[in-house]
Design goal:
The chain is an alpha/beta fold. The chain has 13 helices and 6 strands. It has 2 domains: about 230 residues, Rossmann fold; about 60 residues. The structure holds one RNA strand.
Length: about 325
RNA sequence: GAUCCGGUGCGAGAGCAGUCAUCGGGCGGUCUGCAAAACCGUUUACAUGGGUGCAAAUCCCAUCCGGAUCU
């Protein structure tokens, strides 16, 4: 049995920079399959608004993993995609992770030590009535070191505090297995060769692309898609409906917003999202950035990937 | 001309004497199960000039600018 180095390519960057279509191109060039790393494309029946794209000759994974009414999180994502990536490697193809959800990508390439610690509904309910200080004090009681390690932002983030308490409680009951959990559960091991490329663009360029894309989605029938979701029983309360576009359409459907206001809010929030994505990605020094305004970016990127792809593999195509 | 109401930060909007609320926007940041989320920090404030007070966005006077009413 040959011990071939497994390769993993990641394409990331803010929204509206053309990651998906680039992914298809690269998949054809490098015998790859696409793995979407997008926290909204996992929902069925939400195609136009989340920008799903298909290509007849390229396999794509990571779409339609959940119903719009489901509570979905990185944990479910990680568990199913881990299998998908192994399977792609089995078939001797290159997995190409494409997406803008930095946290989901992180779960795959860096692992999340606590993914296997389940949600504790009863605990969460009992914690609901506590205010932020009470939550923090509770965590400090259970796990002082963890509490002390939180920064000033997370100390006031009830969502994060609740999860930290959940983990602390779990640990008190499963002390002996703690080490197992601490072990990083990631797709990558030392045999995996990772390459990350990022697409960037100036703010005006992104804004422009966003405007065009919103326009396109409207023309493709976005409003009908939302109507259909409502018809099949999806409620505005669900996490899936808090997605960009869908979220803003609520007030429009309820006639609190004019059509123009709806569109401009949508565009605005997309732009804010793109900025938040950048603050996430720019910290990751592994990413090789390419500005899509640069005429040579495509060629430069292909050169970089080729060099990486053809190095060290057994079945050189040369 | 007279009377009344009002002029607060990038926008909306409280406060009406004594840690400059709140929401939104912009900018920056955090991130190990809601991440297209949640959270944190930041942003040439109180129309102008005087006066009273230990202390004024808050009280008084004058001026300017809105808006309403009256002759």
């Amino acid at each position: 049995m040959e011990l071939q180095t497994k390769k993993l390519l990641v394409i990331c960057g803010p929204t509206a920079t053309g990651k998906t279509s680039l992914g298809f191109l690269l998949a054809k060039k490098f015998n790859g399959e696409i793995v979407s790393s997008d926290s909204r494309q996992v929902y069925k029946h939400m195609d136009i608004g989340t920008g799903k794209e298909w290509d007849d000759s390229v396999k794509i994974w990571g779409y339609d993993l959940a119903e719009p009414n489901d509570n979905y999180s990185v944990s479910e994502y990680f568990k199913s995609i881990k299998l998908v990536i192994s399977d792609i490697w089995q078939r001797n193809k290159l997995p190409i992770i494409v997406g803008g959800t930095g946290f989901y990508i992180k779960s795959l390439i860096d692992g999340i030590a606590t993914v296997d610690i389940p949600k504790n509904e009863n605990l969460r309910i009992s914690l609901e009535k506590l205010d932020i200080n009470e939550l923090f004090n509770k965590l400090a009681d259970l796990d002082g070191a963890k509490a002390a390690s939180l920064n000033s932002s997370d100390k006031r983030n009830s969502r994060r505090l609740v999860r930290a308490i959940e983990i602390a409680v779990w640990n008190t009951h499963h002390g002996t297995q703690k080490q197992i959990v601490e072990k990083r559960k990631k797709v990558l091991d030392k045999n995996v060769d990772l390459l990350m490329v990022g697409l960037s663009a100036s703010h005006p360029r992104i804004l422009n692309n966003i405007k065009d894309r919103v326009d396109k989605r409207i023309n493709e029938g976005f409003v009908l898609e939302v109507e259909n979701l409502l018809k099949i029983g999806v409620s505005w309360k669900h996490q899936s409906m808090k997605s960009l576009g869908y979220k803003e359409s609520e007030a429009f459907f309820k006639e609190g917003l004019t059509y123009e206001e709806f569109i401009s809010q949508w565009i605005n929030n997309e732009m804010k999202y793109a900025k938040r994505q950048m603050t996430w990605f720019k910290k990751d020094k592994r990413i090789n950035w390419f500005d899509i305004n640069d005429i040579n970016f495509h060629q430069n990127m292909v050169n970089l990937i080729s060099k990486w792809y053809y190095l060290d593999t057994h079945d050189k195509k040369s």
